């Protein structure tokens, strides 16, 4: 089993990271579920290395589909994101309203755009680092960032502080 994990975990994790739209924790959960299913079927696994690899990727794809279906029946959450970086307004009430508006606008973005914005502006990673983690070219990260920021400006309106 260790050989199986060592040989395939990194590639599977990158694949699942793309399937999870850059959500690192979700990809890790899906990888664990994939390996757990392999462990449960250890006696039935294909002996040939390439056949085993295909089997693992099929299981990983099915796990990702299951996770996507489960996510679609629940509201989207922004978990683990610290939005306290938003400067405080003149009053506590203003700050609460601004934070709620920002979170609402983030929810309106596509998952790809939201992932890029959170990576670049909340987690404060470079474009190259975000591209590597998400599994897309740097130009795609820049493009998604541009369109996400433009959409945020549309959603929040001209009166929102930057």
Automatic annotation (TrEMBL):
The keyword Lipid biosynthesis does not apply. Residues 4-72, 105-154 form the RNA polymerase sigma-70 region domain. Keywords: DNA-binding, Sigma factor, Transcription, Transcription regulation. GO terms for molecular function: DNA binding; sigma factor activity. It comes from the Bacteria. GO terms for biological process: DNA-templated transcription initiation. It holds the Pfam family Sigma70_r4. Coiled coil: none annotated. The keyword Transcription regulation applies. This is RNA polymerase sigma-70 factor (ECF subfamily). The lineage of its organism: Bacteria, Bacillati, Actinomycetota, Actinomycetes, Micromonosporales.
